[in-house]
Amino acid sequence: MITSLDNPEPNYKTIVSHYKGKRFNSPNDLVIDKKGDIYFTDPYFGLPKDRREELNEQGFQGVYKIDKEGNVKLLTNNWPGPNGIGLAPDNRTLYITNTRPPGLIAFNLSNTGDLSNQRIIFNAQVLVKASVSKQKPDGMVINKDDIIFMRGPVGVLIITPGGKHLGTIRTNKRTSNCAFNEDETVLYITCDDLVLRAILK
């Protein structure tokens, strides 16, 4: 959407809708690197549940890159349920959350936008199983110290690049995503019916 934040209007522009002549499933989350290139996940969660296999023209659920010229590149289709996505501050690591199995995956990211060394750095299966909501990893944001704030089963999980779970911001709500203010002293968290604000030390 191309509009002013002060006076938003529904002015939409489609950047890209197809890959190799086939429609994307339902682009879900994105992050923009320092060069202005866009990385996004394309699960089939937005397709009707009873017709997902039929309507999945790509035949997989992928992670893509769009450069500033509008060229689309498939980065990986190894994960059945890519969801949230984030970049390390130095733009050398790309993170995605996956739904099945639920976890946080990291990739080395080259200067040309190629991925390598994929690894699961945080397995959320135990937390999901023990939770009431059964919420799986979703949206994320990464601070200047490369600490990952990720939607998890009971709120927002705080995780190091090595996969250590430092703590959890409990929301007692079904949450979806989060974002910082400019100086990273406030974390805004979107829920089903609320936007929450967490003051960070």
Detailed description of the structure:
- 5% of the residues lie in helices and 43% in strands.
- The chain is mostly beta strands.
- The two termini are 33 Å apart.
- The strands form five sheets. The protein has a four-stranded antiparallel sheet with strand order 3-4-5-6, with no helix packed on it. It has a four-stranded antiparallel sheet with strand order 7-8-9-10, with no helix packed on it. Strands 11-12-13-14 form a four-stranded antiparallel sheet, with no helix packed on it.
- 32% of the residues are buried.
- The mean pLDDT is 94.
The CATH superfamily name is TolB, C-terminal domain
Radius of gyration: 17 Å
* Percent in strands: 35-45%
Summarize the amount of helix as a percent range. under 10%
Pattern of helices and strands:
EEEEHEEEEEEHEEEEEEE
Total strand segments: 17
What oligomeric assembly is this protein in? single chain
Question: Largest sheet at a glance?
Answer: 4 strands, antiparallel
Topology:
Blueprint: E1 18-19, E2 22-23, E3 30-32, E4 38-42, H1 52-55, E5 62-66, E6 72-76, E7 82-87, E8 93-98, E9 103-109, E10 115-123, H2 125-130, E11 140-142, E12 148-152, E13 155-159, E14 165-170, E15 175-180, E16 186-191, E17 195-199
Antiparallel strand pairs: 1-2, 3-4, 4-5, 5-6, 7-8, 8-9, 9-10, 11-12, 12-13, 13-14, 15-16, 16-17
